[in-house]
Amino acid sequence: MADQGWAGRLPAVKTKADLVYENLHSAIAKGTLRPGVKLNMDELSREFGVSKIPIREAVKRLESEGLLVSKVHAGVTVAEVDLHEMRGVFLAREAIETLVAGLAAEHADDELVADLEKTQDAMRKALDRGAMELLAELNTSFHRALAEATGYRILGDLTEQLLLTVRRYRLTAPVSTTSWRSVIDEHDAIVDALRRRDPAAATEAARAHTTAQARYEVAEG
């Protein structure tokens, strides 16, 4: 049969496993389920009101993404992120975020710049209030907006994956107030480059940002 181009026309139908996956993924991302926490399959089945089959399907999917770990006699636990792994994450962040910033600057418009400026203002207010969880969410929003501006979904997906790992690591190694102020200042440099539509400056500002954060968070002892 010839391709009729049906992809994208039919409404997406979420299965029970999809809904369990989304809820568990969100809980892991927000830190409700912290690294090292053991999951009780019976409890999950009762809480979600479903059989163990969709629970297992969701768990398998989260395992494939490295968010859960299943071991014989130990059960299923939320994966921990160690310092060595985080050094690799920051190397990947430098490669991805410099590329993203440069492309975003090429495609930047006034709306993008205005949105980033609003996020920056919100981050400053959150920092002044000591709202650390909100800061983490706003930081994700900032980098997500940059990735979306590139026009490449793969860059958005990679950005989300890296930021999720960073957020999970920060649950056990929180970012200091001083470091968060540096994050905001470093973001300002990226926004300024986008405002001037300067890809080279945006790339260097993003590199300076990831390098500085790596130094603060995962430097060799």
Structural descriptors:
221 residues; mainly alpha
Class by alpha and beta content:
mainly alpha
* Cα distance spanning the termini: 61 Å
Shape label? globular
Strand elements, count: 3
Cα radius of gyration in angstroms: 20 Å
Read across the widest sheet, the strand sequence of neighbours is: 1-3-2
Instruction: Enumerate how many helices there are, as a single number.
Output: 9
Secondary-structure element series:
HEHHEEHHHHHH
> Helix amount, in percent?
over 70%
How would a textbook summarize the main sheet?
3 strands, antiparallel
Q: Roughly what fraction of the amino acids lie in strands? A: under 5%
Mean of residue pLDDT?
A: 89
Q: List the uncertain runs.
A: none
Protein described:
The protein is mainly alpha-helical. Helix content is 71%, strand content 5%. The chain has helices spanning 16-30, 41-48, 52-64, 83-107, 110-129, 132-149, 153-172, 177-195, 199-217, and strands at 38-39, 68-71, 75-78. Strands 1-3-2 form a three-stranded antiparallel sheet. A hairpin with a 3-residue loop joins β2 (68-71) and β3 (75-78). It is globular and about 55 Å long. The model has no long low-confidence stretch (mean pLDDT 89).
